[in-house]
Amino acid sequence: MAGDEGHDRARLWDDVYRTRPADALSWYQAEPTLSLELIDALGATSGSAIIDVGGGASVLVDHLLRNGFTDLTVLDLSEAALRTSRQRIGAEAKVGWITADVLRWEPERAYDLWHDRAVLHFLTGEDVERYRATLRRAVGPEGSAVLATFATDGPERCSGLPVTRYSSRELAMVLGDGFEVVEQRREVHRTPGGVEQPFTWLAARRLPA
Ligand SMILES: C[S@@+](CC[C@H](N)C(=O)[O-])C[C@H]1O[C@@H](n2cnc3c(N)ncnc32)[C@H](O)[C@@H]1O
Predict the structure, then answer these.
(1) pLDDT digits over 159-207, tens only?
(2) Can you tell me the distance from the alpha carbon of 26 to that of 175, in angstroms, rounded to the nearest whole number?
(3) Which ligand 1 atom is the nearest neighbour of the CA of 159?
(4) Comparing C-alpha atoms, which of 58, 162, 65, 156 is closest to residue 116?
(5) What is the C-alpha R_g of the chain?
(6) Is 122 touching ligand 1 by the criterion CB < 6 Å?
(7) What's the CA-to-centroid distance between 121 and ligand 1, angstroms?
(8) Is 201 a pocket residue for ligand 1 (Cβ < 6 Å)?
(9) Tens digits of per-residue pLDDT, 96-109?
(10) Vertex 120: Cα angle to 173 and 33 (nearest 5)
(11) Which three-class secondary structure state does DSSP give residue 38?
(12) How far is the CA of 124 from the centre of ligand 1 (A)?
């Protein structure tokens, strides 16, 4: 990622969240059904440390709090998105909010589960390498990951940006060696505007060393 690209990206996403209500954005889901199913399939328990990378204004964290999870972190480069979530959930909720670009972020602790819905697909080339390295540093030895991107027949752009489309095999390759696939799914997401967007989902856990 060159020079000011990270700042430009943060500005772009802040503008997206400032100009439209969260529930009008194409990726909005009232019920993060597959995220919850796959988090469950990976054996997460209420004390599991879960990070939602590029969580934005997603209501996944609300659902996890309601389900009794106690160690939740949401990371996003858009301060505006995180403010929306913080205001919705309430300041008293015990959630770690990290305003950061995942490509520059240095994890300060290990997480049991990395969740990313619709962030990885914006990255290309060396940025994917950087993403992989950060994921592998952040996910503990018995940790796991849920990744969701546009499928191979999904949209080619989102928010004016080009995206890379993935099969489940290609998503597994992003994780690299030492992960076993637990589940792979295809989902057709319907945007608030009624457009269908095929997604590929992958749930994988680290193999014992
Ligand atoms: C398509 S939205 C998905 C939001 C959320 N995961 C969901 O499912 O509702 C992509 C999100 O990724 C964030 N994002 C994009 N690039 C990022 C980066 N390099 N580091 C951290 N967050 C990023 C954006 O601000 C935005 O909130």
Answers:
(1) 999 999 999 999 999 999 999 999 999 999 999 999 999 999 999 999 9
(2) 26
(3) 1
(4) 58
(5) 16
(6) yes
(7) 10
(8) no
(9) 999 999 999 999 99
(10) 95
(11) helix
(12) 15
User: Can you tell me the mean pLDDT for 23-27?
Assistant: 96
CB 147 within 8 A of CB 201: yes
CA distance 4 to 1: 8
Give the mean pLDDT of 51-70: 98
Average confidence score pLDDT of the chain: 96
DSSP state of 15: H
Helix (H, G, I), strand (E, B) or coil at 88: helix
CATH code of 192's domain: 3.40.50.150
CA distance 97 to 74: 5
> What is the pTM for the complete model shown?
0.97
Q: Is 196 exposed, middle or buried (0-12, 13-18, 19+ CB in 10 A)?
A: exposed
Is the Cβ atom of 101 under 6 angstroms away from ligand 1?
Answer: yes
CB of 55 shorter than 6 A to ligand 1: yes
Q: What residue owns the CA closest to ligand 1's atom 7?
A: 58
Domain containing residue 10: 5-206
Q: How many domains does the chain have?
A: 1
- If pLDDT is split at 50, 70 and 90, which confidence band does 1 have? low
